[in-house]
Design a protein that fits this description.
Length: about 260
């Protein structure tokens, strides 16, 4: 049986193809302004990588904020269920999943069978999300992919006290003007994200193992700051960005049976 999972996020879209519980291929692209086109493109690329055609696929589940615009989906499922399912597949010991994407962050508690028992979400404010990191990275003339390494160079942590993305950006601009070294500002940025996220985690309670999914998990500085703040080692999958799409492809297996 071959199934597909598509995650159309606010910033990135992913496709995963599964055959009998094994990943055949995956693809990641920027969503851009046309979510439907992104879904079609990312799916097509995954099919090509696996040497398959859409008629070879038994069922497709779509997730993410753009899940309703995926014309070839058999079913739509929320990101909560998909991230939980994907993380549980990769780490059967996981009980807490933290997904930080471009526009929201979520903490999901799951039981020993991979079922969702509780979750909390911050989708009201950019602070604590990937967008926050992007805005500040731009002010520092860095790409988000460079933040992790840059922060490692710091011996001290600059304080970013503002809870608002727009004010935090002004704060960072003035720290730069005061001559505070860039690595210290980056560490302050990671610290701020970790504090926000830890506040969210406390609302559902922290039960190890803790797994982080979504694009921000690619930032080693955020992962380290969060591990320290929570007092547990936060585990990161090899490709954290595809976990939602992987969970969707796993849920599609049930539809195709
Ligand atoms: N290579 C990278 N290194 C570090 N951080 C990264 C990298 N790639 C992406 N990110 C971070 O991941 C964020 C995007 O995460 P992701 O792709 O999970 O978002 P999304 O699923 O589109 O958003 P949402 O789920 O909120 O709709 C970016 O804002 C950025 O901060
Ligand atoms: Mg997402």
């Amino acid at each position: 049986m071959i199934t597909g999972g598509i995650d159309v996020g606010s910033l990135s879209s992913e496709a995963v193809l599964l055959k009998d519980g094994e990943i055949l291929s995956y693809s990641i692209i920027n969503t851009g302004a046309d979510a439907r086109k992104a879904a079609e493109q990312v799916y097509q690329t995954a099919l090509e990588k696996a040497g398959l055609q859409s008629s070879d696929v038994d069922a497709v589940v779509a997730t993410g904020y753009g899940r309703l615009v995926v014309p070839f989906a058999t079913k739509q499922v929320t990101e909560i269920s998909c991230h939980a399912r994907g993380a549980f597949f990769l780490f059967p010991e996981v009980r807490t999943v933290i997904d930080i994407g471009g526009q929201d962050s979520k903490v999901i508690r799951i039981d020993g069978r991979g079922n969702v028992v509780d979750f909390v979400m911050n989708d009201k404010c950019a602070a604590g999300t990937g967008r926050f990191l992007e805005v500040i990275a731009r002010a520092l003339e860095l790409s988000v992919a460079e933040l992790g390494k840059e922060g490692e160079k710091a011996t001290r942590v600059a304080e970013i006290s503002s809870m608002c993305t727009v004010f935090a950006e002004s704060e960072v601009v003035s720290l730069i003007a005061q001559g505070v070294p860039r690595p210290e500002i980056v560490r302050g940025l990671h610290q701020a994200i970790a504090e926000r996220t830890a506040g969210l985690v406390q609302r559902v309670g922290i039960v190890p193992e803790v797994v982080m999914t979504g694009g921000v998990a690619k930032n080693s500085g955020v992962v380290a700051a969060l591990s320290q703040k929570l007092g547990v080692k936060v585990l990161v999958p090899q490709e954290p960005q595809i976990v939602g799409a992987l969970g969707a492809a796993l849920l599609a297996q049930k539809l195709a049976q």
